[in-house]
Design a protein that fits this description.
The chain is α+β, with helices and mostly antiparallel strands. The protein has 3 domains: about 5-160, Beta-Lactamase (2-Layer Sandwich); about 220-305, Helix Hairpins (Orthogonal Bundle); about 315-460, Heat Shock Protein 90 (2-Layer Sandwich). It is built from 10 helices and 12 strands. It has helices at about 5-55, 65-70, 70-75, 105-110, 155-200, 220-270, 275-305, 315-330, 355-370, 430-440, and strands at about 85-90, 100, 125-130, 130-140, 145-150, 315, 340-345, 350, 375-385, 385-395, 440-450, 450-460. A 5-stranded antiparallel sheet has the order 2-1-5-4-3, with helices on both faces. Helix 9 (about 355-370) packs antiparallel against helix 10 (about 430-440). The radius of gyration is 48 Å and the shape is rod-shaped.
């Protein structure tokens, strides 16, 4: 799933997550080691107590060590943080008989254990007696085994204190890490932001601009130099293509004009047979189409090169749209189409009358061509939110969803639109878009259905008195 978080936020989140995992792992290891050390210290104290008993009464009868056990606090007082001796038990190793246990609750813990459980060697183990966790040391003394017990609570409390401190410190550490990572990421990505803004300003009419190159020889500097090199190559390729298109269009205009004039003269001579006249008419139509394509290409090339061909002046947009409606009636007459107009009066815009008229005639021509017999063409002009909106609609076959994104691309024609009657050069709508965009307006496909298609052109209205 794609995320829309900015990169600096993602870096901060990942840094905080990695730090959190590292801190939790570190705390767990430290807590384990601390618990192990505390238990080891308890074992050392138990062994020390057992040694004190042995030194006090070496070789004494079974009951004598108990007197020495009672004197252990006076022989070696425990520090306040140490685990004090909880109790002891003395049992015979051979038969497992418990001689004495103090306190009495320890007696039940040893009574049910078999004698073989306690080999005649020193070792330590944990046991729970009436809900209390104890650390027990077994110390063989001839035929008897002395068991000394101490609580494990001090070790557990030390670990709990450590975990509590870590739990309090963890959110603060994560906030500091996330904030620091966000600040560092923002600082590190600042050159990338400047590159993005500079690259966005490089358009078709501003291909000569370049990204600012930093003085440092780091990754960002190398990246900018590579991008500037790519822009140089793109500029050369674009200029070559534009120059070729302009030169080709310009060179074609003169011979096409001559050919069209000669064909018209031949048709007017009246000395042609019917077959020759049909051939001349077909040639004249093809020549006119080529001439129109050359003119469109030349105009598009000027737009691409940033040589805006507009001659903008205040004009009566209502009157221009009304004239286009009259032309639509002439175009629709051979196909018996009904023309409907609804034009608001007094609408004025700032624009080039010739090019805007070209936009209207192009849309009307498409509405007539792509229409059913006895269909309708509707031309409206209205005002809304400071915009003059022209809608050209027809009862055509509609536009398939997969065709809509490419409608305004150059030379785009669907496979079903390559016949002589309706197929054009594929430049009409793209030229309309360039002209309308140059007038700071918009052109878009409006409502489209199985039997209805609309194209909407919106231009800024000229303020009264301007």
């Amino acid at each position: 799933m794609k995320t829309h978080w900015p990169l600096r936020w993602r870096i901060a989140a990942w840094a905080a997550l990695a730090t959190g995992v590292a801190l939790v792992t570190f705390t767990a290891v430290v807590a384990f080691n601390l618990y192990s050390e505390q238990v080891e210290m308890i074992d050392v104290r138990l062994a020390t107590d057992a040694t004190l008993v042995e030194a006090r009464d070496p070789g004494a009868p079974d009951t004598q060590p108990l007197v020495a056990l009672a004197m252990i606090p006076t022989l070696r007082p425990h520090a306040p943080e140490e685990a004090a001796l909880l109790g002891f038990a003395l049992m015979r190793t051979q038969d497992g008989v418990l001689v004495r246990a103090q306190p009495a609750l320890l007696a039940g813990a040893w009574a049910h254990w078999p004698p073989g459980r306690w080999p005649p060697r020193k070792h330590f183990f944990n046991v729970t007696v009436e809900g209390t966790r104890l650390r027990v040391g077994a110390f063989p003394r001839g035929e008897t085994t002395l068991l000394l017990a101490a609580p494990l609570e001090p070790a557990a409390e030390s670990v709990e204190d450590l975990l509590g401190a870590a739990l309090i410190a963890l959110p603060a550490v994560l906030l500091v890490v996330a904030g620091g990572s966000w600040w560092l990421a923002r600082r590190a990505l600042r050159p990338i932001t400047r590159i993005t803004q500079a690259a966005a300003s490089i358009t078709a009419d501003r291909l000569g601009e370049r990204l600012p190159v930093p003085e440092t020889e780091d990754e960002i500097g190398r990246h900018i130099r590579v991008l500037n090199g790519m822009f140089d190559r793109l500029q050369r390729s674009f200029e070559q293509a534009t120059r070729f298109t302009a030169d080709a269009s310009h060179e074609l205009r003169t011979p096409l004009t001559i050919m069209r004039g000669q064909l018209e003269d031949a048709l007017r001579s009246g000395s042609n047979t019917a077959e020759q006249e049909r051939l001349l008419v077909d040639l004249l139509e093809e020549t006119s189409g080529l001439q129109k394509t050359a003119e469109n290409l030349l105009l598009l090339t000027r737009f691409d090169a940033g040589k805006n061909p507009l001659q903008r002046e205040p004009l009566d947009w209502s009157a221009l749209v009304a004239e286009a409606g009259e032309d639509a009636e002439l175009l629709a007459a051979p196909r018996h189409l009904k023309i409907e107009t609804e034009i608001a009066s007094g609408v004025r815009v700032l624009g080039d009358a010739t090019l805007l008229r070209r936009v209207l005639l192009n849309l009307i021509d498409n509405a007539v061509k792509y229409n059913r017999a006895d269909g309708r063409v509707r031309l409206t002009l209205g005002l809304a939110n400071g915009l003059a909106t022209v809608t050209v609609a027809n009862t055509g076959p509609g536009i398939a969803p997969e065709r809509r994104p490419a409608l305004f691309e150059r030379f785009y024609r669907p496979e079903s639109d390559r016949n002589r009657d309706t197929g054009g050069s594929g430049l009409g709508l793209s030229l309309c878009r360039e002209i309308v965009t140059a007038h700071e307006g918009t052109i878009a496909l409006g409502l489209t259905a199985a039997d209805w298609t609309e194209f909407v052109v919106s231009l800024p209205v000229l303020a009264s008195g301007a």
